[in-house]
Amino acid sequence: MAPTAPVSALADDVIGRLVPAYAKSADPVKAERMAAYMKEVVPFLGIPSGERRALSKAVLDGLPRPDETDCAAVALRAWALPEREYHYFAVDYLRRYVRQCSSGFLPVARHLVTTVSWWDTVDALAAHVVGGLVAADPELKRGMDAWIEDDDLWVARTALLHQLRYKDATDTERLFGYCLRRAGHPDFFLRKAIGWCLREYAKTDAGAVRDFVLHNEERLAPLSVREALKNVGR
Predict the structure, then answer these.
(1) How many distinct structural domains can be found in the chain?
(2) Residue 144 falls within a domain, yes or no?
(3) Is the pLDDT of residue 234 over 80?
(4) pLDDT, averaged across the chain
(5) pTM above 0.90, yes or no
(6) Rounded to 5 degrees, what angle do the CA atoms 220, 226, 229 make?
(7) What confidence tens digit (pLDDT) does each residue in 159-179 have?
(8) Does some domain include residue 203?
(9) Is the CB of residue 22 less than 8 Å from the CB of residue 47?
(10) CA of 58: how far to CAs of 17, 22, 62, 120, in Å?
(11) Structural domain includes residue 97
(12) Residue 232: what pLDDT?
């Protein structure tokens, strides 16, 4: 069951400011191009990222720091709006305030990952929101163990990418184990994610990644191998 946006006076203020601010800057020509680039997964207003972030900053100017209830309300209400820029706002808002959220926020994050899913929102949610939640509460690692097996490829991709910013704090047993558990999946987005999370960890421990990839090269897709070793070679 999809989570329901809780009552939040702060969310009322945020959404009440956000919608007219974004609407004034809508550009139908740019919107058509942006939607085409994202394979028509979702409509756009046509606001470039720099302008969108400036508008968002103005929307939030003077508003207080949210608590977890406010974060859920803002994110879910923004996500219910049709155009992608509102979803980007929600992602940016959660990135900014993820430390206000507890492990109980994970179902909201999952809803966002699995609703109008595409890499543009999923990857940011994985690395900056889900990753932040798991880092703050290691008990959520068990949740990631379930997500990596999920039939929804975006949930599995999130599990692969949630440690993307962990560096020395990376749980390498889970990182490598997750890569092997989904190594045979035929979808491009999972194979790409395997290579990407390995390539990112290679910035911290190139030797470990190289050894893992070469030892398991027959199990990993060529795309995953290429991505993983892109910056470290054989």
Answers:
(1) 1
(2) yes
(3) no
(4) 97
(5) yes
(6) 100
(7) 999 999 999 999 999 999 999
(8) no
(9) yes
(10) 9, 11, 9, 23
(11) yes
(12) 86
